[in-house]
Write a structure and sequence with these properties.
Distance between the termini: 50 Å
Number of strands: 6
Structural class: alpha+beta
CATH architecture: 2-Layer Sandwich
Length: about 160
């Protein structure tokens, strides 16, 4: 059996899940803002943008896109590396093998992204919470090392709080 088609009804159901999740994370002070485009884009995809607070990276913007049969999760870990690319890519490949649910990818303009795709029917409140939590954890873990390698002349790791 294939996954259901992402349509306006699926978008409405996903929005209910996202809003319920948002209320829980707001209560903990961990989420900034959630935006949702009320209409599908020209490809029929619906989008949400969740701003999260990180420890190492102040703001983590997580995009959820309801596609034909999946929900695509995506956040930029860092912009395109300018230095030590080979060392950075080796670090990211090794790190990629340790990740659960999400994986690292080179995205538009060679930025480094964390991404996941989940069948529409599997996105529950609990699953969304797991993926968002993993996103924050992995960005906070990977960001400082990746930035220190790939943008070494621009980045200085912040002192522990």
């Amino acid at each position: 059996m294939s996954a259901p088609i992402g349509d306006a009804d699926a978008a409405q159901q996903l929005d209910v899940i996202v809003r319920e999740w948002e209320a829980q994370w707001h209560a903990l002070g961990l989420v900034g803002e959630v935006e949702h485009a009320s209409h599908a884009d020209n490809r029929g995809h619906h989008h949400w943008m969740i701003r999260l607070r990180g420890e190492e990276k102040d703001v983590i913007a997580l995009w959820l896109t309801l596609r034909q049969r999946t929900v695509h999760f995506e956040t930029e870990v860092m912009s395109a590396p300018e230095e030590n690319r080979e060392t950075l890519f080796r670090y990211l490949l090794v790190k990629n093998a340790e990740l659960r649910d999400l994986h690292l990818a080179i995205g538009p303009e060679e930025g480094i992204y964390l991404v996941a795709q989940v069948p529409i029917g599997e996105v529950t409140l609990e699953r969304l919470d797991e993926l968002v939590g993993a996103t924050v954890h992995y960005v906070d873990e990977i960001f400082p090392t990746a930035m220190s390698m790939g943008l070494a002349s621009l980045y200085r790791r912040r002192p522990k709080r």
